[in-house]
Amino acid sequence: MVSKEIKGILFDAYGTLFDIASIDPRLEQLCGEKAPAVAELWRRKQLEYSWLRTLMVRYVDFYDLTRDALSYALETFGLEVSSADKQALMQEYYRLKAFPDVREALGLLKGKYHLAILSNANPSLLERATSFNGLDEILDDYISADELQLYKPVPAIYQLPEKKLRLAPWNLLFVSANTWDVAGAAACGLQVAWVKRQEAIPEKLGLKPDVIVKDLLQLARLILK
Q1: How far apart are CA 61 and CA 145, in angstroms?
Q2: Considering 42, 72, 94, which residue would you say is the last residue of a domain?
Q3: Residue 1 lies in a domain
């Protein structure tokens, strides 16, 4: 259970606030029956590239990293997509749809806690996606790994909010739907909520979330009790 000492709530972006699957209809137009396999590989390579580039100290921003992962996935399945269509597909990242529970949940928490995104995405991706969903009026901050040119789960990323918001780790609640991200934040001493949007099991790293919820509305109501 999370403590009553929370003053700031940090939300992961992709898979937690924004539904990556909202890109799938556009992907289906370009890739046909191969679209589900392309989507799965694209997202997996996106993560792998973030970890590899951090380990190799070969940083590129998240937009470029995501474009490279897309190119890998398309080439793997022998799909020839024009530069214009690939660019249009990448632009969908600016228009990702928020999950249905997000706006109401953040509205309940607004004014009671400092609400921020803590994400690997570069600021332009975060700002445009939040604006598209009307969340820019609710969120107080965007904190991006781009500032350090490293990617989560490097501890320095989870420590950024302490410095920027001047809050101790135990005053911060990190919220993510990604199990590896949950483990990364827990390793840094943050309170952590796992939003279990799909069936998964926790990573076997000896690190557990403080609370598990099905969506952000359940989390908001739990915190505000």
Answers
A1: 9
A2: 94
A3: no
Q: Tell me how many domains the chain contains.
A: 2
Question: What pLDDT, in 10s, does the model give residues 136-195?
Answer: 999 999 999 999 999 999 999 999 999 999 999 999 999 999 999 999 999 999 999 999
Secondary structure letter of residue 222 according to DSSP? H
Decide: 58 and 169 in contact? Cβ < 8 Å: no
CB 209 within 8 A of CB 12: no
CA–CA dist 19, 200 (Å, integer): 17
Host domain of residue 140: 8-17+99-223
Choice among 12, 101, 146, 181 that is catalytic: 12
Length of the chain: 225
3-state SS class at 147: helix
d(CA 149, CA 81): 30
Rg (CA), the chain: 17
Active site residue 12: yes
The residue whose two tokens read 């009671």 is 112
Distance (Å, rounded) from C-alpha 204 to C-alpha 183?
Answer: 9
